[in-house]
UniProtKB/TrEMBL annotation:
It comes from the Bacteria. Gene3D superfamilies: Aldolase class I (3.20.20.70). It comes from Herbiconiux ginsengi. Keywords: Flavoprotein, Oxidoreductase. One of its GO terms (molecular function) is FMN binding. Pfam families: Oxidored_FMN (PF00724). Residues 6-322 form the NADH:flavin oxidoreductase/NADH oxidase N-terminal domain. SUPFAM superfamilies: FMN-linked oxidoreductases. InterPro entries: Aldolase_TIM (IPR013785), NADH_flavin_oxidoreductase (IPR051799), OxRdtase_FMN_N (IPR001155). This is 2,4-dienoyl-CoA reductase.
Length: 362
């Protein structure tokens, strides 16, 4: 594949096609107001991205229940009162020519009590002093994901992306380390996958025929088993339950170190699966046009841009005009971000990333 292939349209199973192979990753930025309401900083950030030439833009992790919050200033979609702000955001993305998706999120056992979160573990042994969710609680949260998708549709988004990564609630339920339940949501792989499948199937049933569904999956940490996740993913792809799989890798070059797939790249374990009409993309330190094009050779249909998009909001346009484009090297001074239009709230969040903002820069 060449860099020019990144600029070709990509059809999806439902709704309109992506105009190119660039998707903006869902990036936590801690810019929203209390109660999950989108701020002027959220809206300005999205307007910047909307003009950047992306095929599809995902919002940051947007909580489906107030108690599912993981960090301060996280956006919400758990109330109809959030819809006006979300409508403004969806309108901005559409005006820029890209598709839009709300990333639906619940922190599960990682919900942060310091910002109003209510830890909601699959197991009673995960969070000291906190009981496991009841079966009815799990079903309530499932329905909250579906209600969030309906609000996203009402707000004018093209779809949603279901956050099933990083030990958040759906990922947590998949883990035999974090899920020792004995009800229908625990035990066998089929039962531990049930929560995710019911969320995805519920959204598909509740929303319109052109509504798009993505699924973000990570395969490391939190006791997750690669072989199990591959088996579950194979079923989802075969049944065409989603439009795209967003494979969240810490590093695109990662090699499997043990088990049945030892010696393979993490990406190849999933890229080699038959996927019918479902599209596959990956994130993980994609900093150059050349590397993005290589991911297409490695089996991806699209690439997810994160850090490179923060540094240059119009990263796809940079690639369009320069096939040898490389993202600025990290770390960068805070003023570099400030001059580019990144808000002080977002910059403060990025300081916690360790390798992004030059220590001591103002």
């Amino acid at each position: 594949m060449t860099v020019n292939d990144l600029l070709e349209p990509l059809t999806l199973l439902h709704g309109p096609a992506m105009r190119n192979r660039f998707m903006m990753a869902p990036l936590t930025n801690q810019q929203s107001e209390p109660g999950g309401f989108l701020s002027e900083f959220d809206q300005d950030w999205m307007r910047q991205l909307a003009g950047g030439g992306y095929g599809l833009i995902q919002t940051s992790a947007t909580i489906v229940e107030a108690g599912g919050i993981a960090c301060a200033r996280q956006p919400g979609i758990f109330s109809d009162d959030h819809i006006p702000g979300l409508t403004e955001m969806a309108t901005s993305i559409r005006a820029g020519g890209g598709l839009s998706a709300v990333q639906l999120h619940h922190a599960g056992h990682r919900a942060n009590p310091h910002v109003g979160g209510v830890p909601s573990p699959a197991s009673g042994r995960t969070v000291p002093g906190v009981s496991a969710l009841s079966t009815a609680d799990v079903e309530r949260i499932r329905d909250s994901f579906i209600a969030g998708a309906l609000r996203a549709e009402r707000a004018g988004f093209d779809g949603v992306s279901v956050h099933g990564a990083f030990g958040w609630i759906l990922s947590e339920f998949m883990s035999p380390l974090l899920n020792d339940r004995t009800d229908k949501y625990g035990g066998s792989l089929e039962n531990r996958a049930r929560f995710t499948l019911e969320v995805i199937e519920g959204i598909r049933h509740a929303c319109g025929p052109d509504f798009q569904i993505g699924w973000r999956l990570s395969i490391e940490r939190y006791g997750l088993r690669l072989e199990e996740l591959r088996e579950m993913t194979a079923e989802i792809l075969d049944r065409e339950l989603i439009d795209y799989l967003d494979l969240a890798l810490w590093d695109y070059n990662q090699i499997v170190t043990d088990g049945a797939f030892r010696g393979q790249t993490m990406l190849s374990v999933f890229a080699e699966l038959p996927r019918k009409g479902v599209r596959l993309g990956a994130a993980g330190r994609i900093r150059s046009a050349r590397r993005a094009a290589q991911l297409l050779d490695e089996g991806c249909d699209f690439v997810l841009i994160g850090r490179a998009g923060i540094l240059q909001r119009d990263c796809p346009e940079k690639v369009r005009s320069d096939s040898s484009y490389e993202s600025p090297a990290l770390p960068v001074p805070a003023d570099f971000l400030r001059r580019g239009g990144v808000s002080e709230r977002f910059i403060n969040h990025l300081r916690g990333w360790g390798d992004f903002v030059l220590p001591g820069s103002r």
